[in-house]
Amino acid sequence: MLSANLSLRADKSQAYFDSLCKHFARKVEVERVGNQASVAFLQGSCSMSVEDDLLMFVVHAGDSASLETVKTIITTHVVRFSAFDDGDMNWCAADSVVVGAQS
Which domain of life is it from (predicted)? Predict the structure, then answer.
């Protein structure tokens, strides 16, 4: 299983997290418990969480093409529902963490 993560800091992280959870729940299966959620896509999955001003995503997929698809889904939706842009999206291997700029 391949994995990648993305961490972003924002004053409105909780609101962004809530919006993303509600939106994805209209389209695919979402399991949310407090400030953590799991989203099941056809190509893979995403674990999302929020803590204070930090919004975190970990995506998993069975192959690199599917991993890129899930990363693209998350990136486009984060851009749509927040003040971030594509330049703030610095995905990295799941064994390392890089925190993006605050928006």
Answer: Bacteria
Average pLDDT of the residues of the chain: 90
pLDDT given for residue 95 in this prediction: 59
* Distance between CA atoms of residues 49 and 64, nearest Å: 23
Distance (Å, whole) CA 9 – CA 54: 5
The burial class, CB within 10 Å (0-12 / 13-18 / 19+), for 26 is exposed
Instruction: Please state the rounded mean pLDDT for residues 36-48.
Output: 98
The phi, psi pair for 9, rounded to 5°, reads -105, 135
Q: Which domains does the chain have, with CATH numbers?
A: 2-83 (3.30.310.50)
* Average pLDDT score over residue span 88-98: 71
